[in-house]
Amino acid sequence: MRHATTPALATVRHFYDGLAAGYDLMYADWQASIDRQATALSTLIDAALGSGEGVAHDVLDCACGIGTQALGLAARGHRVTGSDLSPVAAGRAAREAAARGLGLRTLAADMTRLPFGDGLFDVVVCADNSLPHLLTPEAVEAALGEMRRVLRPGGVLLLSTRPYDRLRRERPASTPPQVRQDTGGRVVTFQLWHWRPDGERYDLEHFQLLPGGAGEAGDAAYEVRTRRTSYWALSQAQLTAFARRAGLTEPAWHEPEESGFFQPVLVARGPGADGEGPPRPT
């Protein structure tokens, strides 16, 4: 099903357009995170496809942002295409890849209507809590259906979210501040969460405090940047059911202590050729 970009998705695009320049400042060491995440995702890919370490696959990162997952996977030899709702973020991912000498094609695209032909990719990655920006069952089903469509027979989807089963019980009002020592001083990032009455969706205020000169008494002052977006805190059972309805098979969750990835990861397969399992690499 094809959907025009909704006002909600336009808001998400605006959020990440504005955040792209400073997204890496949310990490104590962005490059170290890129490397760690690529190691964890590659291990899951190899296990799911039955391939040995170092085997290259055609990978779509359909929520690539500034490249946190795509850059690391490309550095490990995978043939990676990155798409993102935010053209500003996708553009930065391309520049980061060029600076590292990596081949990474990027483009702006809505995950509910991916601009790729059927069956082009061995792997689709949708990481870092990107899918929960979709706030309706219709949008979630459309996105997962598109991910399944662009997978080759027996290909693999890796999708990560926040640990929403726990977060829905706890209903946190904020996240702890993250502090990054930058060349100009300390950068502080935190979030405020406003839960809606349904107990599943929440509106988020993202604060980034950047070194911004001196205060009245000569003390360090901060420039405060605030951005807003919304999420659907999908439980693992809900997301598993959506994946099955989209035609994905064998969905299984891998927790951080098992996978080494920083969020729970749903691994699911596209339908195999003639109902068989995934093809083995040659």
TrEMBL record:
<dbReference type="GO" id="GO:0008168">
    <property type="term" value="F:methyltransferase activity"/>
</dbReference>
<keyword id="KW-0489">Methyltransferase</keyword>
<dbReference type="Pfam" id="PF13649">
    <property type="entry name" value="Methyltransf_25"/>
</dbReference>
<dbReference type="InterPro" id="IPR041698">
    <property type="entry name" value="Methyltransf_25"/>
</dbReference>
<feature type="domain" description="Methyltransferase">
    <location>
        <begin position="59"/>
        <end position="155"/>
    </location>
</feature>
<dbReference type="GO" id="GO:0032259">
    <property type="term" value="P:methylation"/>
</dbReference>
<keyword id="KW-0808">Transferase</keyword>
<protein>
    <submittedName>
        <fullName>Class I SAM-dependent methyltransferase</fullName>
        <ecNumber>2.1.1.-</ecNumber>
    </submittedName>
</protein>
<dbReference type="InterPro" id="IPR029063">
    <property type="entry name" value="SAM-dependent_MTases_sf"/>
</dbReference>
